[in-house]
Protein backbone atom coordinates (compact mmCIF):
# COMPACT_ATOMS: atom_id res chain seq x y z
CA UNK A 1 0.00 0.00 0.00
CA UNK A 2 1.08 3.58 -0.57
CA UNK A 3 2.17 5.52 2.48
CA UNK A 4 0.97 8.97 3.43
CA UNK A 5 -2.22 10.91 3.68
CA UNK A 6 -4.90 10.46 1.02
CA UNK A 7 -4.26 13.96 -0.37
CA UNK A 8 -0.53 13.20 -0.70
CA UNK A 9 -1.30 10.01 -2.58
CA UNK A 10 -3.68 11.81 -4.95
CA UNK A 11 -1.18 14.63 -5.50
CA UNK A 12 1.55 12.14 -6.37
CA UNK A 13 -0.76 10.26 -8.74
CA UNK A 14 -1.86 13.43 -10.55
CA UNK A 15 1.72 14.75 -10.83
CA UNK A 16 2.67 12.17 -13.46
CA UNK A 17 -0.56 12.50 -15.46
CA UNK A 18 -0.33 12.58 -19.26
CA UNK A 19 -0.95 16.15 -20.49
CA UNK A 20 -1.04 15.37 -24.20
CA UNK A 21 -4.35 16.18 -25.94
CA UNK A 22 -6.54 13.16 -26.49
CA UNK A 23 -10.05 11.95 -27.21
CA UNK A 24 -11.72 8.72 -26.13
CA UNK A 25 -14.86 6.98 -27.34
CA UNK A 26 -16.27 4.37 -24.99
CA UNK A 27 -18.58 1.52 -26.03
CA UNK A 28 -18.23 1.99 -29.80
CA UNK A 29 -20.42 -0.57 -31.54
CA UNK A 30 -17.66 -2.36 -33.45
CA UNK A 31 -15.05 -4.92 -32.58
CA UNK A 32 -11.64 -3.74 -31.48
CA UNK A 33 -10.07 -5.67 -34.36
CA UNK A 34 -12.10 -3.81 -37.01
CA UNK A 35 -11.34 -0.45 -35.42
CA UNK A 36 -7.67 -1.41 -35.20
CA UNK A 37 -7.36 -1.71 -38.99
CA UNK A 38 -8.20 1.99 -39.40
CA UNK A 39 -6.11 3.05 -36.39
CA UNK A 40 -3.05 1.22 -37.78
CA UNK A 41 -3.33 3.29 -40.96
CA UNK A 42 -3.14 6.66 -39.15
CA UNK A 43 -0.67 5.89 -36.33
CA UNK A 44 2.35 8.21 -36.49
CA UNK A 45 0.94 10.41 -39.28
CA UNK A 46 0.39 14.16 -39.02
CA UNK A 47 -3.25 15.14 -38.48
CA UNK A 48 -3.95 16.49 -42.00
CA UNK A 49 -2.70 13.25 -43.57
CA UNK A 50 -4.60 11.17 -41.00
CA UNK A 51 -7.84 13.07 -41.72
CA UNK A 52 -7.35 12.46 -45.45
CA UNK A 53 -6.82 8.74 -44.85
CA UNK A 54 -9.95 8.26 -42.71
CA UNK A 55 -12.07 10.45 -45.00
CA UNK A 56 -11.52 8.18 -48.01
CA UNK A 57 -11.27 4.84 -46.22
CA UNK A 58 -14.30 2.66 -47.10
CA UNK A 59 -14.53 0.92 -43.71
CA UNK A 60 -17.33 1.78 -41.27
CA UNK A 61 -14.82 2.35 -38.47
CA UNK A 62 -13.19 5.18 -40.42
CA UNK A 63 -16.23 7.45 -40.01
CA UNK A 64 -16.15 6.91 -36.23
CA UNK A 65 -12.37 7.41 -36.06
CA UNK A 66 -12.65 10.58 -38.18
CA UNK A 67 -15.09 12.13 -35.72
CA UNK A 68 -12.87 11.14 -32.80
CA UNK A 69 -9.74 12.53 -34.51
CA UNK A 70 -11.49 15.86 -35.14
CA UNK A 71 -12.47 15.94 -31.47
CA UNK A 72 -8.85 15.33 -30.40
CA UNK A 73 -7.66 18.14 -32.72
CA UNK A 74 -10.26 20.51 -31.24
CA UNK A 75 -9.14 19.54 -27.72
CA UNK A 76 -5.53 20.31 -28.65
CA UNK A 77 -6.39 23.71 -30.10
CA UNK A 78 -8.87 24.88 -27.45
CA UNK A 79 -7.62 23.28 -24.23
CA UNK A 80 -3.86 23.11 -24.80
CA UNK A 81 -3.40 26.04 -27.20
CA UNK A 82 -1.48 23.96 -29.76
CA UNK A 83 -1.42 24.74 -33.49
CA UNK A 84 -2.91 22.23 -35.91
CA UNK A 85 0.13 22.22 -38.23
CA UNK A 86 2.46 20.77 -35.57
CA UNK A 87 0.20 17.92 -34.41
CA UNK A 88 0.61 14.23 -35.19
CA UNK A 89 -1.07 11.02 -33.98
CA UNK A 90 1.24 9.83 -31.18
CA UNK A 91 -0.90 6.91 -29.98
CA UNK A 92 -4.13 5.31 -31.09
CA UNK A 93 -5.56 2.04 -29.89
CA UNK A 94 -8.81 0.13 -29.45
CA UNK A 95 -9.48 -1.96 -26.36
CA UNK A 96 -12.21 -4.52 -25.88
CA UNK A 97 -15.38 -3.36 -24.14
CA UNK A 98 -18.20 -5.48 -22.68
CA UNK A 99 -19.83 -7.73 -25.28
CA UNK A 100 -23.60 -7.82 -25.74
CA UNK A 101 -24.91 -11.39 -25.87
CA UNK A 102 -27.94 -12.10 -28.04
CA UNK A 103 -29.79 -15.30 -28.88
CA UNK A 104 -30.59 -16.55 -32.40
CA UNK A 105 -33.15 -19.36 -32.61
CA UNK A 106 -32.09 -22.46 -34.56
CA UNK A 107 -33.66 -25.75 -35.57
CA UNK A 108 -35.13 -28.23 -33.06
CA UNK A 109 -35.44 -25.70 -30.25
CA UNK A 110 -31.76 -24.85 -30.06
CA UNK A 111 -30.45 -21.34 -29.49
CA UNK A 112 -27.19 -20.02 -30.90
CA UNK A 113 -25.32 -17.20 -29.21
CA UNK A 114 -24.60 -14.00 -31.15
CA UNK A 115 -21.81 -11.83 -29.74
CA UNK A 116 -22.15 -8.12 -30.51
CA UNK A 117 -18.70 -6.79 -29.67
CA UNK A 118 -17.92 -3.27 -28.44
CA UNK A 119 -14.67 -1.35 -28.10
CA UNK A 120 -13.10 1.65 -26.39
CA UNK A 121 -11.17 3.76 -28.94
CA UNK A 122 -8.50 6.25 -27.81
CA UNK A 123 -6.51 8.76 -29.88
CA UNK A 124 -3.60 10.71 -28.34
CA UNK A 125 -1.97 13.59 -30.23
CA UNK A 126 1.39 15.27 -29.68
CA UNK A 127 3.47 18.12 -31.09
CA UNK A 128 6.39 17.54 -33.44
TrEMBL record:
UniProt biased composition (Basic residues): 1-14
Annotated signal peptide: none
Listed under GO biological process in this entry are: translation
The molecular function terms of the Gene Ontology recorded here are: rRNA binding; structural constituent of ribosome
Alphabetical UniProt keywords: Ribonucleoprotein, Ribosomal protein, RNA-binding, rRNA-binding
Q: Determine if Nucleotide-binding is one of this entry's keywords.
A: no
Q: Which Gene3D superfamilies match?
A: Ribosomal protein L22/L17 (3.90.470.10)
Q: Which InterPro entries match?
A: Ribosomal_uL22, Ribosomal_uL22_bac/chlpt-type, Ribosomal_uL22_bac/org-type, Ribosomal_uL22_CS, Ribosomal_uL22_sf
Top-level lineage group: Bacteria
Annotated Gene Ontology cellular component terms: cytosolic large ribosomal subunit
What are the boundaries of the region Disordered?
1-22
Does RNA-binding show up as a keyword for this record? yes
CDD domains given in the database record: Ribosomal_L22 (cd00336)
Q: What exactly does this protein do? A: This protein binds specifically to 23S rRNA; its binding is stimulated by other ribosomal proteins, e.g. L4, L17, and L20. It is important during the early stages of 50S assembly. It makes multiple contacts with different domains of the 23S rRNA in the assembled 50S subunit and ribosome.
Q: Tell me the PANTHER family matching this sequence.
A: CHLOROPLAST 50S RIBOSOMAL PROTEIN L22-RELATED, LARGE RIBOSOMAL SUBUNIT PROTEIN UL22M
What does the subunit comment say? Part of the 50S ribosomal subunit.
What family name appears in the similarity comment? Answer: Belongs to the universal ribosomal protein uL22 family.
Q: What is this protein called?
A: Large ribosomal subunit protein uL22
**From which organism does this entry originate?**
Fusicatenibacter saccharivorans
| Organism lineage | Bacteria, Bacillati, Bacillota, Clostridia, Lachnospirales
Q: Which gene encodes it?
A: rplV
